[in-house]
Amino acid sequence: MTTTASSDVAPTEAYALLTSAAGGLPATMPDVRAEMTEDEIALYDRQIRLWGMRAQEKLRSANVLLVTARALGNEVGKNLVLAGIGSLTVADHENVTEEDLGAQFLLATPSVGDVVPSDATPAQRYAADRAAAAAVVGTNRAVAVSQQLSAMNPRVKIVAERRDVSTQPASYFQQFSLVIVTDRKPAVLNYINTATRLQNQPFYAASSYGFYGFIFADLIEHEFIITRDRGNIVSKPGDRETRTRTIVDVKVDGEEGTVGLKETITKREAYSTWYLASDASPLPQSIRSVPRRLRNVTPLLACLRALWKFQENHDGDANPRMPSVNSANDRAEFIGLVNQKQAFLGTPPVAADKIREFLQSVESMREISPVATVLGGQLAQDVINTIGHTQQPIQNLLVFDGTTMQSSVYAMHPEMNLGNAQLATAPNTTAPESASEATGGTMSAAVERAFAAGAATGAVIEATAATAAATVPADTSIALSTPTQASK
C-alpha cells in the first residue's frame, strides 16, 4: 500500500506519484494483481454476496478521484475505502479550519499511543481533544483526511492531491476511472464535467446545504446488468423503456416453458452534462403531463436551481458565494430566482416559509453530520453500482430533504440527443483538440486556452456553451442561454 499523505511532499512530487511509471497519463490506474487473495475474499465476503465477485473485482481495480474533503467527502471516501476500492485520490487545496472539526469525523483523531483512556476525566478528554485539533488545524485537508482513510483499509491506495484540480488541464482527469466532485461552485462542476466528458469518464457532483443536498450523475452512456424473473412481456434488445434507458441484451437462463425462468438483461442509460441538466432542462414529460405528479415535485428543485444561479451571478468570489438571509438585496435576488426557476419548471409556487428555511439552512448550517451521512451513503452506493455495472444508477439528479428524510430523483434532460451524441469525446487527444472536434473546429483561441489552463478563468463557461450549442438543434439552442424563454 502506497500512501501520499505527508505535508512535506511538494505538489510536483505528488503529481509525479499520480502520473507515475508509464510516461504520460494512463486512462486508469488498475491493480496489477490478477486475482483477489483469500484474505481479501474473506474480508469482503458480505459485500461479495451482495453484488458478486465480478463487481468486487471491478471495484478493486477502480481509480477514483474525490474532490473536496469536507463532511460529505469524508462520508463518500470512508464508504468507498471500506468497500475495497483499488485507489482513491483525495483532492483538496484548502487547509483544515476550526469549523471543519464540527462535522468531519476524519479530522482531529488522536494518534496511536495518545488515545484517551476510558477512565479519563472530562478535563483530560477536553485537553486531548484540543491537542488533537491543534495538531490538524492549519494542515492540508486532503493530507489530514488521507491519513485516516489509510488506517481504515490499508489495502486501498490513498493519494493526497493538494492542488486545486479545477486549475488543471482537462487531460489531468484522464488517469481516473471515475470522478466525484463535492461542495464546489457550479463553474467548477461545469469545467470538470466537461473535462470528464472529453476523457469519456463518469462524473458525479454533490453538495450538502444544511438540511438539504443533491447528487448529480453524468455517466455519459452506462450499461448495467439486472437478473429477474421472466414476466409475461418478453424483453427484446433494442426496446426503449424510457427516453434515457434502452435494452441492449437479453439472456434467458433455462428452457422456454419451464417454471421460474430467469432472464439477465443488459440496459443502457444515456445522460446529459451538468451544464445542460442543471438549469436549462425541463422536468420529464411523464411528470409534466400529469398534474398530480407535477404538484408533488419538491420545491427544493427550484430552490437549488436558484442557488446555483445565484452562485453564478456572484462567481467573482474565491469561494462559493451564498445568499445571506440578513441581506435585503440577497433575499430579493434569491426570491426572484426561485420564482423564475419555478415558472420554468411549471411547478406550484414555492411558499415563502420554505424559501426562508432554505436560506437559513444554506447560510447558517452548512454541514450537518446526519445529512452528510445519508447523502454520502447514497452517493457512495451509486458509485459502487456504477463501477460494478450492477443495479440502475441515479438518473440523473437526486434532491435530498433532511427535514422529511426523503430523496427525490428527476431525469433532467434538454430536448436533444443524449449520451455520446450530446458532446463528442476524444480520449486520445489533448483537451483543446477534443473540444475542437466536438464543436466542429469552431473553438476560439480564448476557449482553447481556457481548456488548457483549467477553470481559473470564466472562459470555461464559454467553452462548454460553444461545445454544447454546436450539438443542439437550431430550434432548441436558445435553451442554453435563456431558459425562461424556452419554457414558453
Automatic annotation (TrEMBL):
Top EC category: ligase
EC number annotated for this UniProt entry: 6.2.1.45
Give an example GO molecular function.
ubiquitin activating enzyme activity
Residue span, THIF-type NAD/FAD binding fold domain: 44-412
Keyword presence, Cytoplasm = no
Q: Which SUPFAM superfamilies match?
A: Activating enzymes of the ubiquitin-like proteins (SSF69572)
Provide the alphabetized UniProt keywords: Ligase
Q: Cross-referenced InterPro entries, in alphabetical order?
A: ThiF/MoeB/HesA, ThiF_NAD_FAD-bd, Ubiquitin-activating_enz
Please give the name of this protein. E1 ubiquitin-activating protein aos1
Which species is listed as the source? Sporothrix epigloea
